[in-house]
Amino acid sequence: MKFKDLGLSDQILEAIKSCGYETPTPIQEKAIPYIFMAKDIVGLAQTGTGKTAGFTLPMIDILDGGRAKARMPRSLILSPTRELAAQIAENFDTYGKNSKLTKALLIGGSSMENQIRKLERGVDVLIATPGRLIDLFERGNILLNDIKILVIDEADRMLDMGFIPDIEKICSLLPITRQTLLFSATMPAEIKRLTKKFLSNPKEIIITPSESTAETVEQFYIRTAPKTKNTMLEAIIKQEKVRNAFIFCNRKRDVDELSKWLKKRGHSAQAMHGDLAQSKRTETLDQFKNGEITLLVCSDVAARGIDVDDVSHVFNYDVPFNPDDYVHRIGRTGRAGLKGRAWMLITKQDDKYLEAIEQRIGKATFWTELSNDNGDSGDKSSKSNKDNKDNKGKTASKARKPAAKNPEKPKKNQEHKKRSSDHFESKKQDRDDVTGFGDETPAFFGR
Ligand code: AMP
């Protein structure tokens, strides 16, 4: 399918062309026609699938015909994090460069006065985090009765962050005759309940992991003792010829400490987590995006939705407690068809989390345990990656190379693997030249 078959306007097609996109991604192919038909949508898709463009592109066309009144935005996009909200706003700028739509970004940590001034002038697209939106609503700076399209992005992340009561409150303030698009990587019971309550006869779009970019990520894990995690991480960084990487820690304190340790040892590293001022978070992310910082040591605040082109590596310094977080973390690399590598350090205490991750990802072909033969292993009874179940509990393989990949052999659990007024009336590459790649066996452990 081609973009022009989706009914998008010439101005959008031109903007897509200048982005260099050739064909729609699966979620775009499936979602855009429904959005034009004014249907509600539940989109089950991970980040990296092109879902932001999936809703942004048709929204620009739909909204382009009308004009917003002061303090009465015409569409609302709710995002769990400030970074993701800012990124969605950037998408509107990129794809809407040929339109006259106005937008405002309402996020905490930024000047409220500027946001209020924009709202006063009237905005077509309002992109907000729930807390700031409610704050401004309660102060009387926003009226929500003209919202025609509501997007709830990363709904499961909203749940993790305790935003569901806010989302329910916001939904109850919106007109009933609106179009609602909800996107989530997973569908916990609480999100299902939300869709039943606030969406009307939604079309379900499921993008399976095999359609997402996750398959472009080679995944490795290595066992280590807690006290040798830093040196192990540094050794891997050195041997992997990392161009740029996210390094995820579970605790903010560890984010700060590890980033300091890396800086002391001459690495270009910076910390990012939710306790830092928004201005600092934005500055750090910008520096990482433009290559001034190589290693972004972060908490899960950076795990979802953050879109940095061409990230070569993701390191899980800590094993995430929630297997969905693992999927989101490694989704920062291997984006848009490029290759990426994800590494994870495992200590003995992490086994139950590792097991949950294996169940979640279906122990895919690229999930490779490497033996750590420098005596640091925190667990001598680790599992081999090969034939996962059978080898459970056996002594750790002393093989110095990653176990052979066998793409043919199915692995257990791997199956999971028009516009304007009309619209609302109806409602009522394999890239082998990536730095540091092209070498099948990580050298540090092999040769
Ligand atoms: P998202 O899942 O929305 O975070 O998008 C992931 C990345 O895919 C972003 O860098 C987009 O710019 C890119 N992208 C979106 N749509 C396409 C497409 N049709 N072809 C190639 N890249 C795309």
Can you describe this structure?
The chain is an alpha/beta fold and 447 residues long. The chain has 2 domains: 3-206, Rossmann fold, CATH 3.40.50.300; 217-400, P-loop containing nucleotide triphosphate hydrolases (Rossmann fold). Helix content is 36%, strand content 14%. It contains 16 helices and 14 strands. The strands form 2 sheets. The protein has a 7-stranded parallel β-sheet with strand order 3-4-2-5-6-1-7, sandwiched between helices. Strands 10-11-9-12-13-8-14 form a 7-stranded parallel β-sheet, sandwiched between helices. The protein starts with 9 loop residues before the first helix and ends with a helix. Residues 21, 24-25, 28, 47-53, 307, 335-336 line the site of adenosine monophosphate.
Descriptive keywords:
Rossmann fold; binds adenosine monophosphate; 36% helix; 7-stranded parallel sheet; alpha/beta; 447 residues; disordered C terminus; globular
The outline comes out as globular
Q: Which oligomerization state do the chains in this entry correspond to?
A: single chain
User: Which cofactors or ions or other ligands sit in this model?
Assistant: adenosine monophosphate
Main sheet attributes: strand count, strand direction, barrel closure: 7 strands, parallel
In CATH, the topology of the largest domain is named Rossmann fold
Query: What spatial order of strands do you see in the largest sheet?
Result: 3-4-2-5-6-1-7
Number of domain modules = 2
The CATH architecture term of the largest domain is 3-Layer(aba) Sandwich
> Uncertain regions: pLDDT < 50 for 5+ in a row?
374-418, 429-447
CATH class category of the largest domain: Alpha Beta
Mean pLDDT reading: 80
Helix percent reads 25-40%
Q: In sequence order, what are the helices and strands, one letter per element?
A: HHEHEHEHEHEHHEHEEHEHEHEEHEHEHH
Ends: how far apart?
45 Å
- What is the β-strand count? 14
Q: Structural class, from helix and strand content?
A: alpha/beta
Total helices: the number is: 16
CA gyration radius, whole angstroms: 23 Å
Strand content: 5-15%
- Going by CATH, the homologous superfamily of the largest domain would be P-loop containing nucleotide triphosphate hydrolases
